Amino acid sequence: MIPVLAGLDIGGTKCAVVLGLEVDDGIELIAKKSFPTPNTPDEALLLMMNELETLLFDQEELKLKAIGISCGGPLDSKKGLVLSPPNLPNWDRIDVLTPLRERFNVPCSIQNDANACALAEWKWGAGKGTNNMIFLTFGTGMGAGFIFDGRLYTGTNDMAGEVGHVRLEHDGPVGFGKAGSFEGFCSGGGIARLSQPMVKDWLDQGKITSICSSKEEIEEITAKTVGEAAQAGDELAVEIYKIVGRKLGRGLALLVDMLNPEKVVIGSIYLRQEEILKPFVMEELQKEALSYSLEVCTIVPSGLKESVGDLASLSVAKYALEIRERR
Q1: Residues with Cβ within 8 Å of residue 265, at least 6 apart in sequence
Q2: What is the pTM of this model?
Q3: CATH top-level class for 133-303?
Q4: Do 2-125+306-326 and 133-303 agree at the fold level?
Q5: Cα dihedral 249, 252, 258, 262 sign
């Protein structure tokens, strides 16, 4: 029998069930099934368990070792409860671990998506071999997962890592319900909101930008369209990413000064736009961070690249096994 890990990714619009095989200190994705998130938690859990059972049945030589769940927070990882995340409003104190344990009789664990990605990068990606690492999502939102002294740190009630809520400026684009926040400047939605008034002013001056060609299109601006324009050398788009890079550098300086990590791994937008962002990030970091802390810390994009989301839940399964072995 071949021992495998299973992962469940619960999202607001989509869920996924994956199987992974550990190979040479890495992980190989061997099966995946995704589907739109059902209307109710009960339907979603039943469908995910059925899909997992089907994936295992289709390959009879597989033996399930553990199940990990990645889900947006807030949640209670110790009790296995999902506590009404913004993207899952009907999931109020939903116990997701008990049904899995009863049906599959293996160790099960749940972490929020930032923590799950941090575990994946630490186990198999750019953070491998470190004892003190930070992972930043920098995607739809801005969240962090912390690895301290070789262990995942989640805080008193699983709220550690909500760095997107930190205010970087008195004013600015809104993110995490706060104007001028880290998430307001450094997230997909934040970049779009930062860009819209800048593009309007640009067009009002009679200038041309490849971000959009008319004021009627301003509401359709996304971080992707701004990024593509910046990569093509668009002057305004580069200026927008210059602002984003400096705010990212300022947020990183706070983390480097307070937490003294060996490595900060950044996903999604930084992964795709590192060439544009990095000079501005490092300029701000060198200006703002303590030199002794900065010189022992490296800032890198996700080593697992676009697959980090698929592997995140598998890393939670692996962590569940490690916790069990420590007891």
Answers
A1: 118, 121, 125, 126, 127, 133, 134, 135, 136, 300, 301, 302, 303
A2: 0.95
A3: alpha beta
A4: yes
A5: negative
